[in-house]
Amino acid sequence: QVQLQESGPGLVKPSETLSLTCTVSGDSISSYYWSWIRQPAGKGLEWIGRIYSSGTDFNPSLKSRATMSVDTSKNQFSLKLNSVTAADTAVYYCARGDLGKELNPWGQGTLVTVSS
Amino acid sequence: DIQMTQSPSSLSASVGDRVTITCRASQSISTYVHWYQQKPGKAPNLLIYAASNLQSGVPSRFSGSRSGTDFTLTITSLQAEDSATYYCQQSHSTPYTFGQGTKLEIK
Predict the structure, then answer these.
(1) Separation CA B99–CA A62 (nearest Å)
(2) Looking at chain A, which runs of residues are DSSP E strands?
(3) For the sheet containing A18-25, what is the strand order?
(4) In this structure, are strands A11-12 and A110-114 parallel, antiparallel, or unpaired?
(5) Is residue A68 within 8 Å of A36, Cβ to Cβ?
(6) Among residues A115, B53, B58, B63, which one has the fewest Cβ atoms lying within 10 Å of its Cβ?
(7) Cα A83 to the center of its chain, rounded Å
(8) Is A98 on the interface with B (CB under 8 A)?
(9) Facing residue for B94 by CB, picked from A44, A57, A105
(10) Closest residue of B to A104, CA-based?
(11) Are the C-beta atoms of B104 and B13 separated by less than 8 Å?
(12) Phi, psi values for residue A104, rounded to 5°
């Protein structure tokens, strides 16, 4: 059974870089597409981007602030979001999704607050 | 970007009722639509994939359908545990986009 777990600092200062890691168990990180999604409190879901064997795709709404990487030795993938503001405060989820397919499963989510 | 217009934004129904939630895509996206249920403080949970396929372990009272660019999630014989927010999502092209969500309250 595939499981995903997000980890990283829960508090980030404005203008700094948000860094999160998703650890995958029960499946190889070398397969599938791996996405990040976020959800501000009380609001809807926003797809941030995905990483796969051939590269990455990002939501243009992030204005090139996001990068992703994979560590196959640890079966993890990571998200970095630079120049954060209060608007980046949200619960961040990681999820597995194949090309053109559904996002499943999801991690439990981790709250990141941007505040000085 | 492909816009997913979801309606209604909220609804209230009674146990045993039949409920319908709709998403309209801004362009043709074949069957690249999926439905999720999210309960407070939890991650979204996949209900229906590729417009009409029931995810393993999901009760059969949940179903999905497609008519052109309109996609529908139907819950028959509503149960108390169905109280949640429901989202549609398109995976036809990036950026993946979600509907605004429908908050379902059980009377």
Answers:
(1) 19
(2) 3-7, 11-12, 18-25, 33-39, 46-52, 55-58, 66-71, 76-81, 90-97, 103-106, 110-114
(3) A3-7, A18-25, A76-81, A66-71
(4) parallel
(5) yes
(6) A115
(7) 16
(8) no
(9) A57
(10) B46
(11) yes
(12) -170, 125
Of A57, A60, A108, the CB nearest to B43: A108
| Closest-approach residue (CA) in chain A for B86 | A44
Cβ–Cβ below 8 Å for B43 and A47: no
Q: Which residues of chain B have pLDDT under 50?
A: none
B49 and A61 in contact by Cβ < 8 A?
Answer: no
Q: Which residue of chain B is at minimal alpha-carbon distance from A49?
A: B95
Does A3 reach chain B within 8 Å, measured CB to CB? no
Per-residue pLDDT reduced to its tens digit, A51-99? 998 899 999 999 899 999 999 999 999 999 999 999 999 999 999 998 7
